[in-house]
Amino acid sequence: MTKLKTVLLGSVTAIAVTTGAQAADMMMDVKAPREPVYRCDVTGFIELPGTDICFKVGGYAMLVAYASEDQWDAFGTGAAYGIVPDGHTLEDTTGMYAVGRVNFDARTSTEYGTVRAYVEMQAVDNDTRTGGSFDLRHAFVQFGNWTFGKTWSTFLNLESSPVYTDLLTVTGDNFMRRNQIRYTQSFGRGFSVSIAVEDQDYTTPSAITAAGLFAPVWGFCGGGCAVVSNRNDVPDVVANIKAEGDWGSAQLSGALHNNAFRDVFLGSAPATVPGSQTDSEIGWAALFGLLVNTPATGEGDYFTFKAIYTDGATQYNQDNFLWTTNTVWGACNWLVPANGDCAVDTVTTWSVLASFTHNWSSTWSSTVGAGYQNVSAPMTVFNAGVPSLSSDFDMDTYEIFGNVSWMPVNNLTIMFGVHYGHVDFNGAGTTPAGGFDPFTANPAAADDQGALAVALDIVRSF
């Protein structure tokens, strides 16, 4: 009111000392619509002139240099499940790549709360003169308690993800950015609940046949056919409950996913004809994430823990050998379609991941941690007495890692990380002949294998 009063008094004074047409012009100016008086007091944001929008530009530039043993295509796979025997990849064991990331954040205070629009793009380039087209990471609108658009899945708990190099995704971690509609309600004292519907086609979930082949390639489904995704009218339902405080944070998440597949003759249209059976199976996933501050060991120190379990919803623990394969597809009776029951089982995964971060000083810190994951697809019952088919798939993966970070100046971080990964197929794919043959794709593969990878990250954020 004081500021407005000063403006009005100043206007009256100006009118009093202005003559003729000039005075009339000034009166018209005073009566004309005025731009809103707005103050942007959000740290790091600036006011867009003539608007009520607080605006911020951020991002970073990063170089990653890496080296790995021959068994680990660290750049191509980025996770320990991709470790293969010596000589089974021709990928470079050393390399570099650059990352450019930029984001835009626009906010306005309204009677409904803050209205926000956020967009983030990223480009990665490792071996071209000019390349690495920008890809969309985030694009969402927040209006009051609602979030609409693409951003981190409601299932995730990013606080319980350890600090490690950009090159890899540590065993047991997960990063999902999905299109969604989310509602979040806070209850005070650090408690909140979120519920969302999210796009069910994230990374296109698939089936694996009893022969050990991925849909939609040739499988053991009778008459020469393929398993393809069927129409799915149900989005994923995802929710979490979260608690935060000076002690740290904890979160429990859950998700439901409907698996819908169709058995079709190779080369035919997906019509409902004999030999084109459909089946569906509900999958689910759960996560527990924890971050505990440990001031007794040093200022800023903390411990993280994350556990994930999935049953028919592997995309919620996707960094594994079977990727987002959710169901086991049996030998459908294509002569008698009414028998149905093609989705005979589900793929299950479970993982645990823990880390500890210690700050040695205001500029030096380090993180150590380890993760473990098991993936299982039961198929033996369908393969009894058929020598050409695979046995049950059961794979264990573990990873141990450590890194040291130096921040010589604000917003510049130099980190060196070391990772050791190990995979054990537990004889998965073993045929009656006794050879190790994971899905007949790599007959000379080793049953278990370990490898080492190191990386240097140099990041300047803004």
TrEMBL record:
Belongs to the alphaproteobacteria porin family. InterPro entries: Beta-barrel_TonB_sf (IPR036942), Porin_alphabac (IPR003684). GO terms for molecular function: porin activity. Consists of 16-stranded beta-barrel sheets, with large surface-exposed loops, that form a transmembrane pore at the center of each barrel. The pore is partially ocluded by a peptide loop that folds into the pore lumen. It is a multi-pass membrane protein. Its main location: membrane. Residues 1-23 form the signal peptide. It comes from Microbaculum marinisediminis. Keywords: Cell outer membrane, Ion transport, Membrane, Porin, Signal, Transmembrane, Transmembrane beta strand, Transport. GO terms for biological process: monoatomic ion transport. The keyword Signal applies. It is found in: Cell outer membrane. Forms passive diffusion pores that allow small molecular weight hydrophilic materials across the outer membrane. The keyword Ion transport applies. Transmembrane segments: none annotated. It comes from the Bacteria. This is Porin. The lineage of its organism: Bacteria, Pseudomonadati, Pseudomonadota, Alphaproteobacteria, Hyphomicrobiales. Pfam families: Porin_2. GO terms for cellular component: cell outer membrane; pore complex.
